[in-house]
Specification:
CATH topology of the largest domain: Glutaredoxin
Distance between the termini: 31 Å
Largest sheet: 6 strands, mixed
Strand order of the largest sheet: 1-6-5-3-4-2
Shape: globular
CATH architecture of the largest domain: 3-Layer(aba) Sandwich
Number of domains: 2
Number of strands: 6
Order of helices and strands: HHEEEHHEHHHHHEEH
Strand content: 15-25%
Radius of gyration: 25 Å
Amino acid sequence: MSRISYRRFMAAALVIAALVLSGCAAPRSADRLDLIQADVKTLAAQMERLSAQIDAMDRVVRPLEMRRVSMDFADAPTMGNSEARVGIVAFSDFQCPYCQRFHLSAYPVLKERYIDTGKVLMAYRDLPLAFHPMAKGAAAAAHCAGAQGQYWEAVDALFEAQDRLGPALYPEIAAGLGLDMDVFRTCLDDPAIMAHVEGDAAVAAALGIEGTPTFFIGRVEGRRVIDAIPMIGLPPYETMAGVIESLL
């Protein structure tokens, strides 16, 4: 049901309620009528609040749903066949529970069926949300692991240990991946790494993205995803697979 249809339905329901409660029953006392009218006013106020909530959601979601976009992979880490026909750009946050859920559930199936088979090229871009204080540091740790060829392995480890994100965890993950620890620590202190993370966040802001995860699925042309379809939140695997299949 569309937003307009929903509002019309609710308005009609309020009219019917008013008629039934105050005009279509046996005569009642004045006190009872006052109570009924108060109930109708309460319903009307609730409808107004719901309408405002719908408007607020529209301002975030509808601009993305109503347009497709094209974007560069830029220097984002990618996984898969560079000659793939379909690309996915994911904006993610290592402290976001929904990003973790995607990574531990839908992502392994997408990887097995589409990325590892050469059909899809996937890129990760960072969107550390302001209320996730550990997200930026975790993103920097992933990129520093990537500097030694272990980005995706670090991503796996960070999501698996999401409840432990923090400075003590990152060297532990690096050691487990067999990284050069001196190089890793130096990398964490490099301002260019944080600038990369913040640059991704700026791209997300320019696109109107305010939450994670957000995915863009489109055709690959060079180092760009063209005419990409946005998917906001945690879409079911079947939904993502359906979009991918329509583009293959």
